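A.,

Following up on our hallway conversation. Structure tokens first:
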């Protein structure tokens, strides 16, 4: 539960939200837990909710994992109201939330952690993150990348040569180090339309607020924002594809479960529109996570 009269991010900025995962409560109308966690001694699972401040209930989390001080995320629940939970049934592929009798944190707030190449969470159903009519999208992540190796925090991709949608919150590649990247697809999901930021070592090893966006097929422009500022845009002559696929956290979906490097996730949002109020959303997120000044 949360304090009476408390206002949450999606109460103010909930229009067109498609998925929302966080270590904090995001909506006054959401009554479910934050995540389902497996303690690794007896492998018992429990739903972990929010405390009276709307934060992840770390007291309940640590009590659940007290037998050997380790906890893995089985399900991260979608707070958007659309029911696109992401889950992982295979124990060895579950991201970490408690280790060494302590909650994993970044900058003082709980964080889910992929510390093995095989860790990822996936929805069981397709979701339409990129608008079906105009191919617009705004995806937002609070993340921390450990390296520059093609690490994807939010993806909607697949193996194969067509029907691919996007890699919305990710960084560069082995030959594009210290860069942020966003990928949408054109030509019915066949051709990658991607853009990289200029190199900046601050993108790696630090908690960041990253936004990938598509203005849609009216302008055919995509771009990246970092810590409250736009850093790069690019325009294509192709038609941006807007199919529906499973949602992946900690993986792009194309090579699961064997791609990308270690990283933390604290919050992921995706809207099927170009959010004109993205700066206000960023301000709300930064006020909670204290990412930049």
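Then the amino acids I'd put at each of the 293 positions:
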């Amino acid at each position: 539960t949360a304090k009476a009269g408390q206002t949450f991010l999606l109460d103010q900025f909930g229009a067109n939200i498609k998925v929302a995962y966080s270590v904090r409560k995001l909506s006054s109308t959401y009554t479910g837990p934050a995540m389902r966690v497996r303690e690794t001694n007896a492998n018992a699972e429990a739903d972990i909710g929010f405390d009276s401040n709307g934060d992840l209930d770390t007291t309940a989390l640590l009590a659940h994992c007290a037998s050997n001080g380790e906890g893995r995320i089985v399900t991260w629940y979608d707070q958007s109201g659309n029911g696109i939970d992401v889950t992982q049934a295979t124990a060895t592929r579950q991201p970490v939330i408690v280790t060494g009798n302590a909650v994993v944190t970044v900058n003082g707030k709980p964080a889910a952690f992929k510390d093995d190449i095989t860790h990822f969470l996936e929805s069981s159903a397709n979701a339409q993150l990129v608008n079906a009519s105009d191919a617009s999208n705004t995806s937002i992540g609070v993340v921390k990348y450990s390296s520059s190796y093609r690490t994807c925090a939010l993806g909607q991709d697949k193996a194969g040569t067509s029907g691919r949608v996007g890699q919305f919150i990710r960084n560069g590649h082995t030959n594009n180090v210290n860069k942020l990247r966003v990928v949408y697809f054109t030509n019915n999901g066949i051709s990658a339309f991607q853009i990289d930021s200029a190199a900046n070592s601050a993108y790696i090893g630090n908690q960041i607020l990253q936004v990938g966006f598509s203005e849609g097929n009216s302008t055919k422009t995509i771009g990246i924002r970092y810590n409250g500022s736009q850093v790069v845009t690019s325009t294509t002559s192709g038609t941006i594809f807007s199919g529906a696929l499973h949602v992946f956290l900690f993986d792009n979906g194309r090579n699961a479960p064997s791609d990308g490097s270690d990283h933390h996730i604290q919050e992921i949002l995706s809207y099927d529109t170009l959010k004109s109020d993205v700066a206000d959303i960023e301000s709300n997120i930064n006020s909670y996570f204290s990412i930049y000044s």
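The chain has a mean pLDDT of 95. Curious whether your intuition agrees with the design.

B.
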